[in-house]
Amino acid sequence: MDKSNKVSMTEAEESRVIEMAWEDRTPFEAIDRLYGLSESEVITLMRRSLKANSFKSWRERVSGRKTKHEKVRSPDVSRGYCPSQYKPKSK
């Protein structure tokens, strides 16, 4: 992102963030851990990157979706990370 405290993202990184934002089970916290983008920064990126109707569809899709926030997701949702998003604790 173009902020003084944020490192600019490559096109590939932006593409991956957009992909993760569309995924139902990828929480915003995972995007924050990997790319340092808060939920509001992801929304800004999506608004800037998507066509208006696509952005509107995405916002309707994720608004209120419990799986997009770790704190409110059901404990039954145990899978939501690809190997690059989640590093299991060492034994």
Can you offer a commentary on this structure?
- This protein has 91 residues and is mainly alpha-helical.
- It has a domain at 11-59.
- Helix content is 46%, strand content 0%.
- The chain has helices at residues 11-22, 28-35, 39-49, 52-62.
- Helix 1 crosses helix 3 (39-49).
- The protein starts with 10 loop residues before the first helix and ends in a 29-residue tail after the last helix.
Share of β-strand residues: under 5%
| Biggest pleated sheet | none
**Strand elements, count:** 0
The class by helix and strand makeup works out as mainly alpha
- Radius of gyration from the alpha-carbon trace, in angstroms: 14 Å
| Pattern of helices and strands | HHHH
Helicity level: 40-55%
Instruction: Identify the overall geometry.
Output: globular
Discrete helix count: 4
Short description:
Helix content is 46%, strand content 0%. With 91 residues, it is mainly alpha-helical.
Topology:
Layout lengths: L10 H12 L5 H8 L3 H11 L2 H11 L29
Helix pairs in contact: 1-3
Give structural attributes.
91 residues; mainly alpha; 4 helices; 46% helix; globular; disordered N terminus
